């Protein structure tokens, strides 16, 4: 079987950008949940 | 004599490849019924594999005596899969089924979902190394999303020649999570690490947060990876129906009737791409191997990420929970929870594993969108 090493090397940036992209999105989601929980949990406490 | 040949002539045209496809179809039906492996999909796929491999089958489009006869499986394929309708409708049902509560209680778990998508990107490179064109490599890699509709959506987006093999691999490995994941996890963790207990602090998540969450996920994922909007949007739409509190009937309908009808049609329709001529090739075998590679490296990615985090945090994570980021909801969370109990009967990881698992569901869909965006830019 012939291995396409050159093409393989060209895909490595996709791996890098893909993992960076997914961590960036998950980090943004994490931060937004933390902010939402802070705002609305405090709001609920004040109501009580 | 002529009438006899009309009745039995077809018998002589059966090829050995078609016989092999009948056996494959029969095996899928057996696994669905006897082994309870994803029966809602493997059974229709198995039966579809048989009916589309009968010579001159009227179920698929054929040219008979120079006349094109349109088959119902191709009609369904063009109406429901070629335009990505069925996988997206299925996402509404899946979204309506998911409770993001455990994730919202401990949002850090989202990051495990990101780490456990490593197998997708690793497999993409490996598929290219073995000679697949980039569009097919991306479609094969998405088997690692461990999520059927995402696999169908991405493979169809790239117009992959291997849609049938990719879907069979995706659903088969999802059903095989209890066999695939445990040995990999044991290989990358020590007994001591597997015994790490994680305290679960139940928190009351305000309803408004549960309602805002699907909207925010859609906007953030959509802005960064616009190609994922259809995927993540339909998933989150289903979840919004569930959490809004005023559409209980819709939520029930999405979870039951919609999911059942779409799954039924999806399974048998996919079989239209399991014709012997295209399915029985060395490439199919290679795709099955690469699918396994994707699942293995997803698992490794999640576990290693947990171990790295443990170097910096006071309250240690049990590294096994990282493996649930693979998606394959809810199978993976149950498997890891059981592994935890086996190591220490007092170690209840379930709420953490469910949290990571639903985080993995979001991450796998986002990964699908990212693969589409990144690979499209290079094509």
- Derived from helix and strand composition plus strand pairing, the structural class of chain A reads mainly alpha
Helical stretch count of chain B? Answer: 20
Beta-strand percent range of chain A: under 5%
Tell me the number of helical segments of chain A per DSSP (H or I, 4 or more residues long): 1
C-alpha-based Rg of chain B, rounded: 22 Å
- Strand fraction band of chain B? under 5%
Shape of chain B: globular
Pick out the low-confidence regions of chain A: none
- Chain oligomer state: heterodimer
Q: Whole-Å distance between the termini of chain A?
A: 69 Å
Averaging pLDDT over every residue of chain B, what do you get?
89
Structural class of chain B: mainly alpha
The count of DSSP E runs of length 2 or more, i.e. the number of strands of chain A, is 0
Report the major sheet of chain B.
Answer: 2 strands, antiparallel
Task: Give a written overview of the molecule.
The complex is a heterodimer of chains A (48) and B (379). Helix content of chain A is 90%, strand content 0%. Chain A is mostly helical. Chain A is rod-shaped. In chain A, 23% of the residues are buried. With 379 residues, chain B is mostly helical. Chain B is built from 20 helices and two strands. Chain B has a two-stranded antiparallel ribbon with strand order 1-2. In chain B, helix 2 packs antiparallel against helix 3, helix 3 runs parallel beside helix 16 (248-270) and helix 15 runs antiparallel to helix 16. The longest helix of chain B has 29 residues, at 282-310. Chain B is globular. The mean pLDDT of chain B is 89.
